[in-house]
Amino acid sequence: MRETALNKEAKLHRLHNQRRIAYSLIERARSLLTPGANFSQELHRLFRSQGKFGSKDRRLYRELIYTYLRYLPWLEDDYKDQSALLDKLIKLASPTSEIASLYPTLPDKQPYIGETEKRFKTLGRDDHELLELLPSWFPSHFKRPLHSPSLLPLVTRPPLWIRVQKDPDLSVLQSLRDAAGPESAEQIQPHPVVPNCIQAPPDFSLAEHPAYASGLIEIQDISSQILIQLLPERPSGAWLDACAGAGGKTLQLAQELQPSGRAYAFDTRPAALAELKERLRRAGLRNLTVLDQRPTNGQYDGVLVDAPCSGSGTWRRHPFLMRQTREQDVFGHADRQLNILKNYSALVAPGGLLVYCTCSLSRYENEGVAEKFLRKQKDFVHQALSERFGLRDMGQGITLYPEDFDGDGLYICAFRRK
Predict the structure, then answer these.
(1) Whole-angstrom Cα distance, residue 110 to residue 41?
(2) The pLDDT value given to residue 386
């Protein structure tokens, strides 16, 4: 009995030490919120500097830091009170196994009992107050009225979305459920409308799964998956993904272009292209070429411009962007987006398609840029997107809001070269 009591005391001491480490990391993370700073990269370096962190430690501290960033305006009064702040964060955080391990440190030893996505009620807050968590300038950029159903997905953690690239023996879904274990298996479900799309819990790890390692599946947000399926016609011929990033949409585009079409991909960031090349190796696609230099000539049947943006559509996934982005940054992005779109439009063949998209929810980066482009480029006209998944292009493209499919926010607009 004596040994058991000592073990419990040692365990509780370790848990309280984790709370102290979390607080020190939050203090340092606050200094990384300078506009334009690469928060993810700097946070990764911060974790590496700790030396002793394992994967569970990183998941625990990242969840607490991201929860703090989501609810920062409501937590500032408690920031100087380490104990009160950590109590609130542990209750607010998504109830992963790592977070649940800290529940014994709470005064009442109990987490919030209720809807997981409404854990903010532990602070005595209500749905309509969620607007206070967003930057004050943001509502004027939003085209859809901001009410409770649209606010909640902006500040809650999204699920993990998976795209099935190939499933020769129709066993991928079951293998994912087997890897998840009995507690999470039922949360892994195929989407009822979007083909080849699977939803998994936010903390589900794919890195070591054989289906991921062999290129059978890819991590790709549901809104990103929908984009390719909204094109006016199935892509054919030669297509350029001009701002490919790590290549989620690029791989999907290349698949759609099979068997006779070909995709080309470029991005200004070498690290992103390196990741794309690794994903291409896993996928085994033979009709995709990664370009090391920006193409300045040629004629493509289609050009996809997923332009760099403020990223407000990904705030729920990257809450640090919500704290870094200023309104003037949005307007600066819009100017650059218009220039990028104009430059790449020159590579579209007559009769070809130019597709513009952003992961922003600001009308200034979305419809505003599309309207300016059409006014300046008289050889292009608006091309309506396909009507699928209950979506309809009313002449200014389509915005996918986080509340629509429980994914990221995404804007899509297409132009046809005369």
Answers:
(1) 34
(2) 97
φ/ψ of residue 249, rounded to 5: -70, -30
Sequence-distant (6+) residues with CB within 8 A of 148 are 127, 128, 130
Which alpha helices (DSSP H) does 101-208 contain, by range? 148-151, 172-180
Strands 380-383 and 288-290: unpaired
Look at residue 203 in the predicted model and tell me its pLDDT.
86
| 253 neighbors 283 (Cβ within 8 angstroms) | no
- Which residue carries 């409404």 as its tokens? 118
Question: Omega into 259 within 30° of 0, i.e. cis?
Answer: yes
CATH code of domain 160-219: 3.30.70.1170
The C-alpha atoms of residue 110 and residue 107 are separated, in whole angstroms, by: 8
Which residues of the chain carry a pLDDT beneath 50? 1
Contacts of 356 by beta carbon, 8 Å cutoff, 6+ apart = 305, 307, 337, 341, 369, 370, 373, 397, 412, 413, 414, 415
Comparing CA positions, the residue from 197, 198, 163, 224 lying closest to residue 359 is 224
Cβ count near 87 (within 10 Å):
19
Please state the three-class secondary structure of 177-203 as a single string. Answer: HHHHCCCCHHHCEECCCCCCEEEECCC
So where are the chain's domains?
2-125, 160-219, 222-417
Contact 337, 366 (CB under 8 A): no
Q: What order of strands is seen across the sheet that includes strand 189-190?
A: 189-190, 197-200, 160-164, 217-219
Architecture of domain 222-417: 3-Layer(aba) Sandwich (3.40)
Quote the pTM value: 0.94
CA 86 remoteness from chain centre: 26
Phi, psi of 306 (to 5 degrees): -90, 85
Output the pLDDT for position 1: 46
Identify the CA nearest to 225 among candidates 109, 389, 63. 389
Residues 122/165, Cβ–Cβ less than 8 Å = no
Catalytic residues: 359
What span, in angstroms and rounded, lies between the C-alpha atoms of 175 and 179? 6
* 121 and 369 Cβ atoms separated by less than 8 Å: no
Q: How far apart are CA 94 and CA 296, in angstroms?
A: 46
